[in-house]
Design goal:
The chain has twelve helices and twelve strands. Among the domains are: 50 residues, 2-Layer Sandwich (Uridine Diphospho-n-acetylenolpyruvylglucosamine Reductase, domain 2), CATH 3.30.43; 101 residues, CO dehydrogenase flavoprotein, C-terminal domain (Enolase-like, domain 1, 2-Layer Sandwich). With 329 residues, the protein is of the alpha+beta class. The mean pLDDT is 97. The protein has a five-stranded antiparallel sheet. The structure holds flavin-adenine dinucleotide (FAD) and iron/sulfur cluster.
Length: 329
């Protein structure tokens, strides 16, 4: 048995200092990922810094935007009337994730930092470059049905599992942190790192750097956003493909579009190729399909997950169509 030091932080600076002091430390929020990984032997922190006593659970109105505390629980954020009215895709993505019990425990900061559900990463035995750099990737010739088709490398093809990160990427949220080197505001588009040759590096946080809040920017278009999720069963399951979409149409022509995908990318995937095709185009199913095809053209599927190419294209068309019809998922 490995000894584990438990430290309960009472202020942000103390949490950062305690975590930074031990290179083998980890933060503990709701624990719905971290405790699982410790039990599986995949995470082996020597010090666990419990951050639940920190005053980071509020959702603050910034006037136009919202600032969601890192310890705000998924279920609380999903039901916040300001989130529901101004960022419906965020509320929908939260409610379509995990289960009610998990959502009551799980925090927004923890959700963004959750690890992949790749079974080889979680079994603590198979070669896995993300868990054990340089050991190989068992998914390349193994089971890869749930794996990524965009942003992959020969070192890792795991998807990022978060639902809520998908609309956050579409809407250009900002991740606020406090770390040993000070405070940072990281655009969420820069927060997730594609695997390349270093799949063990998933985000740019330095060791001991704490997410304190996620800012939802002022974006009128977000009021008409939606989130669709396709999975093997209708609840308590991760996405095979998901779509966050928001579209503005004037005179039958798309004037603005925000689109991101889950379940298909090694990171929550901003569909910029599709967005570029959409703006200025007629808001028709044909043009939506054309944009979807452009986004999926660089896909590199495995035999197990080739179905995701067509599924993602159909999901994009459906998401865009519904977004133009009033934004209900
Ligand atoms: C059975 C099951 C089904 C699930 N289904 C879904 C699903 O469909 N969709 C989905 O999106 N998610 C799903 N999840 C994942 C769930 O949403 C995450 O486990 C949860 O959001 C993590 O939040 P937490 O507060 O419990 O984080 P923790 O488990 O406490 O922490 C997770 C990671 O984040 C780090 N961390 C936590 N807070 C911070 C912070 N403020 N700053 C920096 N690092 C931090 C921790 O050190 C740890 O590495 C599922 C989980 C389970 C167990
Ligand atoms: S896909 Fe990534 S996480 Fe899964 S076995 Fe390969 S390297 Fe590990």
């Amino acid at each position: 048995m490995r000894p584990l030091r438990y430290a309960r932080a009472t202020d942000v600076d103390g949490a950062v200092a305690t975590a930074a002091a031990d290179p083998d430390s980890a933060f503990l929020a709701g624990g719905t990922t971290e405790v699982d990984l410790i039990r599986l032997g995949v995470a082996r922190p020597r010090t666990l810094v419990d951050i639940n006593a920190l005053p980071l659970a509020d959702v603050d109105d910034l006037g136009a935007g919202l600032r969601v505390g890192a310890l705000a629980r998924m279920s609380d954020v999903a039901r916040d009337p300001r989130v529901v009215a101004r960022y419906p895709a965020v509320a929908q993505a939260l409610l379509l994730g995990a289960s009610e019990q998990l959502r009551n425990m799980a925090s927004i900061g923890g959700n963004l930092c959750q690890r992949t559900r790749c079974p080889y990463f979680r079994d603590d035995v198979s070669p896995c470059n993300k868990r054990e750099p340089g050991s190989g990737c068992s998914a390349l010739d193994g089971i890869s049905r749930g794996h990524a088709i965009l942003g992959t490398s020969e070192h890792c093809i795991a998807t990022h599992p978060s639902d809520v990160a998908v609309p956050l990427v579409a809407l250009d949220a900002v991740v606020h942190t406090v770390g040993p080197s000070g405070t940072r505001a990281i655009p969420i588009g820069d927060f997730y790192l594609q695997p390349g040759t270093t799949p063990e590096a998933e985000h740019p946080l330095e060791h001991g750097e704490l997410i304190v809040a996620v800012e939802l920017p002022a974006l009128p278009l977000a009021r008409r956003s939606l989130y669709l999720k396709y999975r093997d069963r209708q609840s308590y399951e991760f996405a095979l493909v998901s779509v966050a979409a928001a579209v503005a149409v004037e005179g039958g022509v798309v004037t603005a579009a925000r689109l991101a995908l889950g379940g298909v990318g090694t990171v929550p995937w901003r569909a910029r190729l599709a967005e570029q095709r959409l703006v200025g185009a007629p808001a028709t199913a044909e043009r939506f399909a054309d944009a979807a095809a452009a986004e999926l053209a660089p896909a590199r599927p495995r035999p197990d997950n080739a179905f995701k190419v067509a599924l993602a294209q159909r999901a994009i068309v459906r998401g865009l169509t519904r977004a133009t019809q009033g934004g209900r998922s």
